[in-house]
Amino acid sequence: MKKNLQWKVVVALVVIAGAFFLAYPFNDAKIRRGLDLKGGIHLVLQVITDDSINMETDQEIARLEELLKKNKIAYQKVTKEGLGRIAVQGTLADEEGKTRDLLDEYTRDWDYSFSGDRAVLSLKPLVAQYLRDQSVSQAQQTIDNRINQFGVAEPIIQRQGSDQIVVELPGVDDPERVKELIKVTAILEWKLVKAGPAADEATLLQATGGQVPDDAEVLKGDPKRAQGGYFLVDKVAVVTGKDLRTIRQVTDEWNNPAVSFTLNADGGARFEQLTGANIGKQIAIILDNKVQVAPVVEDRILRSQGGIIRGRYTPEEAEDLVVVLKAGALPAGIRYLEERTIGPALGADSIRQGLIAGLVAILAVMTFMIFFYKLSGINAVVALLLNVLILFGALAYFKAALTLPGIAGIILAIGMAVDANVLIFERIKEELALGKGVMSSITQGFTRAFTAIFDSNLTTIISAIFLFQFGTGPIRGYAVTLTISLVANLFTAVFISHLLFDLTVKKTAKALSI
After folding, report:
1. C-alpha angle 397-401-407 in degrees, rounded to nearest 5
2. Comparing C-alpha atoms, which of 366, 377, 372 is closest to residue 414?
3. Is the pTM here over 0.85, yes or no?
């Protein structure tokens, strides 16, 4: 064997062996199935980005009140007048210059204007857009963290448009639990209870003349936790979920599911001070503005001790609470726009139909090539089979999901692979008709057909890249398999097919049978 053929044979064998090693055995452990083949849940979520603007506005109000007090600037009240809009009312006209200097130094993200004894601040448009964009990105990351801790294998979580997130969870058959896990905002707070629980808000506020004090708020107990009724609690939380250091699922002294926690140094110090100063009083543990439990403080809780969250949780609910608290709070609310649940039976039926379609396509192409091109058709069939083998090896290596549209991409790539072989064979026939030698005709046929093959595959790959970039789950699956198939096609149709000709046409030109 000539040296120029030896290295080609070595390259071909290495690629084939590598693809077989990566793809074998041909099961879920190697080649992951997509949502439409395995079954599962497809969700389209919309992030309520206005929440991030409202949160920034509330935080700015608190900062502004502190600044005005610190700099001894008199005012009556600071109120929110709408989305990203704050009004400061009072005797500002007498100290407008001092107030302007303060706003210029500390509120650079806000525009402001004065009218008499009133100042109006508006969030700058670019800042508002940044906050909206960040809220979607943070929501995507938080959902990704929650799903990963939930234990879903190979989920797809990607952004779509300006405020939407697509979630695909193969193999999940409990959509309600997953939806609740995703949607819960998971803002955890510890607040001192001033009064409650009471059956209704009017009864709760009797001691305060029916009015909610400025430093307090009314929250409802979560009926699922047997903590119904209404509570009057401090408006400011002493400890929040941001202060958590560790959190895990445990069982309490009555062998019921619960959640234990420890706090970081700063949060632990505040929690120790809070419990030490309020022995005999209730402290409410609040999740998403619902009181989960409000135990009575029996003794000072040292900063190193932590505590337990009880509330008649099922094991699944306790596990989900640990997941959402570990993953962090969502920066904004979530709205469900679309939901599809694909059962395992439908997935199995899709697999069966997809395999039948793929096998029929391959057999039809093989029959045509062998019937029309005889021995050269066998060359094309071998290249085609190696194309499919390389495809599955690449899917296994990149851990890409095989979807039903992906199978359609494979069938399209098979057609393009055959088209490449037809172009090459017809070029060789033209060269033979001109009276050229066999090896010369083969070389010229491959050389002249290469440009057309390369151009057609390259333009299709470029289209597939755009589909992958801007498409969602099934479309991306189609783009991935099509791209891999076309790259494999360039290797098998040009390199492998040419090598097979070089190895088989030494004895006689009739071996071509073209």
Report:
1. 110
2. 366
3. no
